[in-house]
Amino acid sequence: MASLIPCPHCGSRPKEEFTVKGAALARPAPDAGTAAWIDYVYLRDNPRGAYEEYWHHTSGCRRWLVVSRNTATHEISGSRDVVLKLSAEAL
Amino acid sequence: MSDFELIHRPAISTKPVGSSDAFAMKAMPEGTLIHILGKPGAENLTATLQGLFGGEANRIRTFGPGQWLVVRDEPTSRSDMQALFERLDTRAFAVDQTHGRIRIEVAGRAVQSLLAKGTAIDLNAVAVGQSAMTLMGHISVHITRVALNRFELIVLRGFGQSLWDEIAHLNADF
Amino acid sequence: MTSYRLPKGGLIDRQSRLGFSFDGQSVTGHAGDTLASALLANGRQLVGRSFKYHRPRGILTAGAAEPNALMTIGSGGRTEANTRATMQDLYDGLEARSQNRWPSLDFDIGSLNGLLSPFLAAGFYYKTFMWPAKLWEGLYEPFIRRAAGLGKATYEADPDRYEKRWAHCDLLVIGAGPAGLAAALSAGRAGARVIILDEHSLAGGSLLSEAATIGGESAPAFAKRLADELETLPNVRVLTRTTAFGWYDGNVVGAVERAQKHVRHPDPNKPVERMWRIVAKKALLATGTEERPLVFGGNDIPGVMIAGAMRCYLNRFAVAPGQRTAIFTTNDSGYALARDLEAAGVQLTAIIDSRAESQFVYTGKARLLKGAVVSDAKGGKALSSVNVTAANGATEAIAVDALAMSGGFSPIIHLACHRGGKPQWSDVHGAFMAPSETRGLVLAGAVTGTTGLSASFAEGAARGATMAQDLGFAAQPFDAGPVDGDIVASPASPLWNIRGVKGKAFVDFQNDVGRKDLGLAVQEGYGDVELAKRYTTSGMATDQGKLSNVTAIGLLAEARGVSPAEVGTTTFRPFYTPISFGALTGPHHGHHFQPVRKSPLHDWAKKHGAVFVETGLWYRSSWFPRAGETSWRQSVDREVLNVRTNVGICDVSMLGKIEVCGKDAAEFLNRVYSNAFLKLPVGKARYGLMLREDGFIYDDGTTSRLADDRFFMTTTTAYAAGVMTHLEFCAQGLWPELDVRLASVTDQWGQMSVVGPKARATLQAIVDGDISDTAFPFLAAKEVSLFGGRLHGRLFRISFSGELAYELAVPAGYCESVADGVLQAGKEHGIQPYGVEALSVLRIEKGHVTHNEINGTVIPSDLGFAKMVSTAKPDFIGKAMLGREGLVAQDRPSLVGVVPLDPTTTFRTGSHILAKGAAQTLENDQGYVSSSAFSPHVGSTIGLALVKSGHARHGEEVVVWNGLSKEFTVARLCNPVFFDPANEKLHV
Ligand SMILES: [Zn+2]
């Protein structure tokens, strides 16, 4: 319910302000080949434990973040701006 | 049709709410609102913008990394606006949002309690002059503390009346 | 009815007299009473019927764990079922009704179930309702549904106000007992922001029922003085009647404050319940313990009560539990009750202490039976005697009308386990303790196993001071002073199985789960704690086993011959107690259910009589009925024909509008669209297709170049927010090296379509510059001056209908006025407003697609947009995946028109296409109708369809089949562009 997500620009905010996209993966080069692209678009690891995801602070600063979430406990340990050198730790 | 009467219609047509020292809400003039788009992570343009847009009459609001809002009660003419945009040069792009976003002022002893019914921000930690984007209920709102017990809310024009109605509803107990 | 109210004592206002009703009977109580204490004071022991066997039940506890005294409170829209009488403050005029009985509480037909009990044992449902399967729907499910649940919810709307509120603090203290008060004072006096909450109406916790004195002051008076001091501190918030129901990530605690559930006429301007979401830097759990019942025969007969509850009714509410009482205890706490009963002049017949040895020196008058147990309680609707089995096995009956029981204490650790931590069994405490790892949550007082008031005060004070110090406050631990007369409840040695039991011995009172049921579960292979729970339903009632779970685990452990540590517990999850839907909903219902997004032309459409339709959060005008029109179709057909012959005006302000700026804006657009944008000239608009990375179309719209480094993009209404978020991802996450900046300007510009052969003549009257075809050709996009330079807008020559058409964007505050101006200018040309229905007909006639077609399964070539996929660009979103086998297959569904052979017949959107003569089965499915409308231009229903190899099948006769309503229409596939296929009208 009321879990918080830390934003490096705004501080901790309720998850309702955010939109999740999914695994934080690097986009392959245009000529990386079908296998790499299939992997990027469709195939996901489903690790138990630490996982990095893209979240968008939609009702806040509108920055895209990489959020570290534990898939087993749902605990969020921290986040960083997807490109700016700023990060935040969970409360 | 040079004789056509061109009428400006404000987004909030409702009368101000509350007049007690506990809580009051009013629509602010739809004067000028400019969205400044700098380069995120690059220079802080606050001082530049203050220089460009003047002192007290203009107010510069932070609006996420590399972005600012310039607000003033008075309208800015098209030529003045263009001149200002040109003076920004390559440091930032500007977009006129005078009609896109409206401002509502909420004030009073209970104002912080009222806002806490909608936003998860710890308003105690927001100093006078500081701004934050947040969710107020279901509506995205830009909040600025303009005085100890006075906040300016900036909201998309289309959501203005809805936000107003919700705050008026939440205000019933003050 | 006999009064059981003692002549003095208690925290009640004896001057006040509150009238209330129970099952229609008028009774009275005092301010300070709970509904339960008032009923007990009136000698009302029987207050409910049990769930399965309809056994008579009395008040068992004085708190949140109450399993028996569940009542329906209030009437009309304020009816609230399953209210615990122990948590409900009494108010004048309160109406309470017992539940789960018929025809009356005293005589309940359902109690015959008790005779059937051999058949209703654990696993009854699983064993009985297995086959035949077809009986499930008609017989079993209705039966189980009728039997399930106790009270009935009302169908009337709740008239009251609910709200939600966020709060932030340095220290949150959960539970205002001795430890909690001491912690809050220690931190609060040092200036820390403190919130202290308690589920009861008064702060004080166990102090309210305590006979001991603190510094010479009575315990309740001491508690009040502490609470009063906290109230005076501006940095401290005291919330009573507030239950912390969950502990969440980020050290957020959810709590519900029952702000006006204790008043007859709630102030309509204030909420009856307030849901708090408290973000705490640190939190202290000082929730105390739950006293466990003992599992002897007839332990559910009205008159049997938890010992601590009896002490609470006696000391806090001045209610005598009966006229001849006995105490059955496994620990020293029974002696505190004994002392207080005797001091109050209530006859105490016997103390039955299960321990053969105890250090406690009892000096009262009652018989003390050491090493003895109560095997059975006797009585029907009221307790009459107990059978005691002595240490030597001898039995005797003792006549009593009230029996207190204490099976030991379980720390209330629920919240500490909500974030996944597992409770730990402790042999020392004979109880499950909080997980060792509780991050931002610290425990103090009885919940840690600490016993005695002095120790609880000291522990709370120390924890509160330390946490405040950690946050930088110069806090000192609060000193409560000397405590006198405290009887410390030494840890109980758990007593799970009691010898000599003959009658029904209950573990879970609310779900009627007995000792034997748990034994049966183990016997039948369901001894695992999670399986036993489901097999017996123990712990699955509205009380979630607060009173019963630990006992059930103890019994399972003994039956399996292992330690409770090995059995373990089921998972603790929020909510700690049931929470009303009202509190969860807060203010968001009715008018405030969701925000409304209003177009700047909303009021304009309204004044022209528009019928509105909700699309997402927007209200869009559907059509504009005129006098004499009796159906929507008449209005829509007129609007369509008027656009095709004269001119129409339509509100398109809801389109998403994004300003894309920056040195690399063109390159950026080139990468997010599948078609080329790099060389789009300034002053021109272009239709663009946006794909997803998997190659399917995401959204479409036109984008215009306002300057070298500035574009104006439009998106569909539905995907406006999504496209903005997507572009931000591309700009920030994928290509941060590009200089591109994005601003949503949807609300800045009100936008209207002016469409039809006379659109130019109409617009030319308000646009200052020349908009002839030469000066302003198809796809021109420029800033224009309006009304003699008084306003500037943006004019786009784009068409969604196939007609000569413009979209005019103007600053939103002037939009209504400009639309009025357009109507005035177009009057002589026959202008009429039209709505989204006509808009839709016009676009289907022209074969334009919307999200009906762009539904996540189509790629550009499916819609005839193969040429909009650049082969020259090195990269764009979706490029890499477009070459996959399935996306280049020849028989992919593609866009085609469809018309009925007989123009008087019709078909519906969603219908399937079958080859002529094919059987009506899904195996023969060739595609489906994605959009359809009556076309005034064609004179019949027309449709757009996605059909296998559709582009190559124009002219083929097919059947349009609607299997749901068993309709089929003979039709012909055709070119999807029904209107002006040569696009001549666009260029006039
Ligand atoms: Zn943020």
Automatic annotation (TrEMBL), chain A:
Q: Which residues form a coiled coil?
A: none
In the record, what terms sit under GO molecular function? sarcosine oxidase activity
**Does the UniProt entry include the keyword Cell membrane?**
no
One GO biological process term:
tetrahydrofolate metabolic process
The cross-references to Pfam families, in alphabetical order and at most eight, read: SoxD
Looking up InterPro entries in the UniProt record yields: SoxD (IPR006279), SoxD_sf (IPR038561)
Q: What is its EC number?
A: 1.5.3.1
Q: Where is the signal peptide?
A: none
Q: Which domain of life is it from?
A: Bacteria
What is this protein's name? PROBABLE SARCOSINE OXIDASE DELTA SUBUNIT PROTEIN
Q: Which organism is it from?
A: Rhizobium loti
> What lineage does the source organism belong to?
Bacteria, Pseudomonadati, Pseudomonadota, Alphaproteobacteria, Hyphomicrobiales
UniProtKB/TrEMBL annotation, chain B:
- Gene3D superfamilies given in the database record: Probable tRNA modification gtpase trme, domain 1
Mind telling me which InterPro entries this protein's record contains? TrmE/GcvT-like (IPR027266)
What this protein is called in its record is Sarcosine oxidase subunit gamma
Tell me which species this is from: Mesorhizobium japonicum R7A
From TrEMBL, chain C:
Q: Where does the GCVT N-terminal domain lie?
A: 601-873
| Aminomethyltransferase C-terminal domain: residues covered | 895-980
Record GO biological process = tetrahydrofolate metabolic process
Give this protein's Gene Ontology molecular function annotations.
sarcosine oxidase activity
Query: Pfam families under this entry?
Result: Fer2_4 (PF13510), GCV_T (PF01571), GCV_T_C (PF08669), Pyr_redox_2 (PF07992), SO_alpha_A3 (PF17806)
Q: Identify the residues that the record assigns to the SoxA A3 domain, covering every copy.
A: 502-584
Which residues belong to any copy of the FAD/NAD(P)-binding domain? 170-304
Record's InterPro entries?
Answer: 2Fe-2S-bd_N (IPR042204), FAD/NAD-bd_sf (IPR036188), FAD/NAD-binding_dom (IPR023753), GcvT/YgfZ/DmdA (IPR028896), GcvT/YgfZ_C (IPR029043), GcvT_C (IPR013977), GCVT_N (IPR006222), Sarcosine_oxidase_asu (IPR006277)
- Please provide the record's keywords in A-Z order: Membrane, Oxidoreductase, Transmembrane
Q: Which NCBIfam families match?
A: soxA (TIGR01372)
Family per similarity comment:
Belongs to the GcvT family.
Q: What is this protein called?
A: PROBABLE SARCOSINE OXIDASE ALPHA SUBUNIT TRANSMEMBRANE PROTEIN
Biological classification of the source: Bacteria, Pseudomonadati, Pseudomonadota, Alphaproteobacteria, Hyphomicrobiales
